[in-house]
């Protein structure tokens, strides 16, 4: 059984550092607001239109911590709707502003929350979406070079060497694991240790 109490603690900590997390997250563009390409940002913020074939009946409207409205669409909305109440509580409030949601250079769509991020390889209805949590999300967001080592000049999130998420988090004992196109990240709750593996090689966490 998932230890949701630990997730709640992580969500509080992540929420306090939300600004720095999303700045290093799924989109590496520093001069292009996420709303420019966003398929999940608040319509009131971006005014962005979805494709003509998008089914708005399944959109989900949420409130940020400061009361702004964020509208989830497509696979992001579907994943959030399918989450349990405990998972939604652990995700916490959605984040807003530059880099909190949108489309990365690799085409991955994302929405950051206080306690994690929901991503999908594209914004098409029916595309699988995954939740990446807490410290695993933090390690995935770290900017890395092509070999996976931390590098301020590199890229993080789905544009980094790990690539896009390919699974929800799995749990074996105290060890949580999320997989990505080119590797995996594990988090041991007992030792509080994060291990990042890129293309079969263990690399520095940060």
Automatic annotation (TrEMBL):
Keywords: Signal. The keyword Signal applies. It comes from the Bacteria. The keyword Cytoplasm does not apply. Residues 35-45 have a biased composition (Polar residues). Residues 26-56, 145-188 are annotated as: Disordered. Residues 1-23 form the signal peptide. This is LGFP repeat-containing protein. It comes from Gordonia iterans. The lineage of its organism: Bacteria, Bacillati, Actinomycetota, Actinomycetes, Mycobacteriales.
């Amino acid at each position: 059984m998932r230890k949701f109490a630990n997730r709640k603690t992580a969500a509080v900590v992540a929420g306090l550092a939300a600004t720095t997390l999303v700045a290093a997250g799924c989109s590496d563009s520093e001069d292009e607001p996420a709303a420019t390409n966003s398929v999940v940002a608040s319509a009131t913020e971006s005014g962005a239109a979805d494709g003509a074939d998008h089914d708005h009946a399944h959109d989900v409207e949420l409130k940020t911590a400061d009361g702004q409205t964020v509208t989830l669409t497509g696979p992001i909305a579907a994943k959030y709707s399918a989450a349990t109440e405990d998972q939604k509580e652990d995700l916490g409030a959605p984040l807003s502003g530059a880099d909190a949601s949108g489309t990365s250079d690799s085409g991955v769509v994302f929405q950051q929350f206080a306690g994690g991020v929901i991503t999908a390889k594209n914004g098409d209805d029916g595309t699988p979406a995954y939740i990446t949590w807490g410290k695993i999300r933090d390690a995935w967001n770290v900017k890395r070079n092509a070999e996976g080592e931390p590098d301020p000049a590199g890229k993080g999130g789905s544009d980094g060497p790990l690539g896009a998420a390919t699974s929800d988090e799995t749990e074996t004992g105290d060890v949580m694991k999320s997989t990505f196109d080119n590797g995996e990240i594990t988090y041991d709750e007992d030792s509080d240790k994060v291990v990042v593996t890129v293309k079969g090689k263990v690399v520095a966490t940060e």
